């Protein structure tokens, strides 16, 4: 029997309550108001009147699942809210000191100058969760309807065009049965739907596949960022100080690096990015991050401090050539869903926000013409690619691909590419999917391969280093326990056979929240996969890195997941 569902019709639907969608929604409300005022004053044209704009957010509140480093270029924020300082934007500190260094196992070589792409003059250290929450409040004040705690689970199509999304049912038990509190999801129908779900959004993934939006593009590549916010003794690390590191604990064939950003109130954001195109099946990004904190340089900063919050998230780093087609009948892609992160600058907030602003301008024109076709919406893609965002991404278009030859050759190539404005490596360098880079255990460790446990090279002391369970506790993550797991393992036999034999189940290591656990039966020794899904940080690493594409991340019941307030 088909479920009776409530249908809610809106004009414009933004899927995802992150900075790209919120910027887009606020800007659209401003543009509509300005248009109607002009019509009224000049007596020409048609007012748009009441336009219903909605934002769907799967987290329990706006900002709860927003996480980034982060150092923000404020250009797009300034365009959206010119008086953002007077309006109390929650900026931690203006960048006042910056350094780049290479870490060896115990030492540090400081670069004599900051490479131009990492020059942060005029930028701000921010907590993305705080900034997002602030934009959410502003959106509500502008009359935008925000639906927190509702996850989009299915794209609605009408006559081949995107027509909105269906939200997930609530109150489904672990075996799929309806519980007494069952509530069917709502069909949110819209004239135009803007997808800004963040990295590896589940609806965006479906959309890209269904509409072939990635045809002729490089596959998207990702890094996973594992981060903690620490409270450190007064005067230890100045607010506005920004440190980027290369080298230890990563080997030269692993893409990524560390960061330490001084926040307000003696807080420090410390994190490690690990490229998910890594080869070593025993690599554990969370463990590498713990090792990073034990490096003498980092350890000295954190000494006598206290960890306050933990989180993890993927970031799309494939760049210009991995951006999918961004428009289609009835909708468009913005922010990380569009792959707008500028890897060389380690920044994506300004491009995400700018994409929201451009989306709003295109949607305004579409509303005026009542034309939501791909042809009409394609103005967005043109404006994005031909404007500052496209130019910035094009200039460093082969940055990530160059790293697949190792750190040193990439630094030289990428440096020249930046300096020469992209005049070398003009043509697209190819890229492979991240998971395809994973080598088998035997290829890396030979026949006498250590077990992952034997390879464990640090102990967690609960003071400076933490196991995954403890860290997850500090992310505020909770889920309704009585629901089906939202990590869909397509074929468990793959886990027990080829994946165990070739890779010793890398999900046990690449997940930064210990969601995947292999349990052995006391009597038979037979192993079975246990899913601690309520730990899930929604980082999407498993969806990206599983070597058999055997894990599909789908949204859990709305409202579940991390509850970040400082990330
Ligand atoms: Fe990330 Fe997947 Fe682990 Fe969830 S289960 S924390 S999405 S790797």
Beta-strand percent range: 15-25%
Low-confidence parts:
none
Total beta strands: 24
Give the N-terminus to C-terminus distance in angstroms: 44 Å
Query: What Rg do the Cα atoms give?
Result: 23 Å
Q: In this structure, how is the largest beta sheet organized?
A: 8 strands, mixed
Structural descriptors:
567 residues, alpha+beta, 17 helices, 24 strands, 24% strand, binds iron/sulfur cluster
How is this structure best described in words?
The protein has 567 residues and is an alpha+beta fold. 29% of the residues lie in helices and 24% in strands. It has 17 helices and 24 strands. Strands 1, 2, 8, 9, 10, 13, 19 and 20 form an eight-stranded mixed β-sheet that branches. A hairpin with a 4-residue loop joins strand 5 and strand 6. The mean pLDDT is 94.
Describe the structure in brief.
29% of the residues lie in helices and 24% in strands.
SSE layout and pairings?
Blueprint: E1 7-15, H1 19-42, E2 53-57, E3 71-72, H2 75-80, E4 91-94, E5 97-103, E6 108-110, E7 124-126, H3 128-141, E8 145-148, E9 152-158, E10 161-167, E11 170-172, E12 178-183, E13 187-195, H4 202-210, E14 222-231, E15 241-247, E16 256-262, E17 267-275, H5 285-294, H6 296-302, E18 306-316, E19 327-328, E20 331-333, H7 349-369, H8 374-386, H9 388-395, H10 399-402, H11 407-419, H12 441-445, H13 452-455, H14 468-473, E21 487-489, H15 492-503, H16 507-510, E22 516-520, E23 527-531, H17 541-545, E24 551-553
Parallel strand pairs: 1-2, 1-13, 2-8, 5-15, 13-20
Antiparallel strand pairs: 3-7, 4-7, 5-6, 9-10, 10-13, 11-12, 14-17, 14-18, 15-16, 16-17, 19-20, 21-24, 22-23
Helix pairs in contact: 1-3, 1-7, 7-8, 8-9
Residues 487, 511-513, 515, 536-542, 553 line the site of iron/sulfur cluster (SF4).
């Amino acid at each position: 029997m088909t479920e009776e569902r409530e249908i809610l019709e809106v004009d414009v639907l933004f899927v995802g309550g992150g900075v790209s969608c919120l910027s887009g929604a606020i800007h659209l409300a401003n543009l509509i108001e300005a248009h109607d005022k002009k019509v009224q004053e000049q007596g020409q044209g048609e007012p748009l009147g009441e336009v219903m704009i909605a934002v769907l957010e799967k987290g329990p509140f706006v900002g709860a699942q927003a996480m980034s480093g982060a150092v923000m270029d404020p250009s797009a924020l300034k365009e959206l809210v010119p008086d953002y300082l007077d309006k109390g934007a929650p900026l931690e500190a203006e960048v006042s000191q910056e350094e780049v260094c290479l870490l060896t196992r115990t030492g540090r070589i400081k670069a004599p100058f900051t490479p131009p792409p990492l020059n942060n003059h005029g930028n701000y250290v921010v907590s993305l969760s705080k900034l997002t929450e602030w934009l959410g409040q502003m959106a509500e004040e502008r009359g935008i309807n925000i639906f927190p705690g509702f996850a989009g689970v299915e794209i609605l199509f009408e006559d081949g065009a995107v027509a909105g999304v269906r939200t997930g049912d609530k109150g489904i038990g672990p075996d799929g049965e309806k519980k007494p509190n069952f509530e069917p999801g709502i069909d949110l129908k819209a004239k135009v739907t803007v997808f800004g779900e963040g990295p590896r959004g589940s609806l965006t993934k479906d959309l890209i596949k269904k509409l072939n939006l990635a045809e002729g593009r490089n596959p998207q590549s990702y890094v996973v960022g594992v981060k903690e916010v620490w409270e450190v003794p007064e005067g230890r690390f100045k607010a506005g100080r920004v440190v980027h590191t290369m080298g230890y604990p990563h080997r030269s064939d692993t893409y990524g690096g560390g960061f330490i950003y001084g926040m307000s109130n003696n807080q420090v954001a410390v994190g490690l990015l690990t490229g998910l195109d890594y080869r070593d099946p025993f690599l554990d990004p969370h463990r590498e991050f713990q090792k990073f904190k034990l490096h003498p340089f980092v350890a000295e900063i954190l000494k006598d401090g206290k960890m306050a919050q933990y989180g993890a998230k993927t970031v799309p780093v494939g760049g210009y050539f991995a951006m999918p087609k961004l428009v289609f009948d009835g909708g468009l892609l913005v922010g990380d869903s569009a792959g707008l992160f500028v890897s060389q600058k380690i920044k994506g907030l300004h491009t995400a926000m700018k994409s929201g602003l451009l989306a709003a301008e295109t949607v305004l024109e579409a509303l005026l013409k009542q034309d939501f076709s791909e042809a009409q919406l394609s103005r967005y893609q043109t404006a994005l690619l031909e404007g500052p965002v496209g130019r910035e991404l094009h200039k460093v278009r082969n940055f990530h691909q160059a790293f697949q030859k190792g750190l040193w050759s990439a630094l030289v190539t990428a440096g020249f590419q930046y300096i020469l404005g992209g005049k070398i490596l003009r043509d697209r360098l190819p890229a492979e999917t991240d998971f395809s880079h994973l080598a088998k255990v035997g290829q890396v460790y030979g026949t006498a391969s250590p077990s992952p446990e034997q390879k464990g090279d640090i102990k967690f002391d609960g003071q400076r280093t933490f196991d995954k369970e403890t860290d997850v506790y500090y992310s505020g993550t909770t889920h309704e326990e009585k629901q089906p797991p939202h990590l869909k393992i397509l074929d468990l036999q793959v886990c027990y056979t080829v994946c165990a034999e070739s890779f010793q189940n890398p999900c046990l290591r690449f997940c930064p929240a210990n969601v995947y656990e292999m349990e052995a039966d006391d009597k038979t020794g037979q192993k079975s996969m246990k899913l601690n899904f309520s730990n899930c940080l929604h980082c999407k690493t498993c969806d990206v890195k599983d070597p058999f594409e055997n894990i599909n991340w789908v949204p859990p019941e709305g409202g579940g997941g991390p509850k970040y307030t400082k990330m």
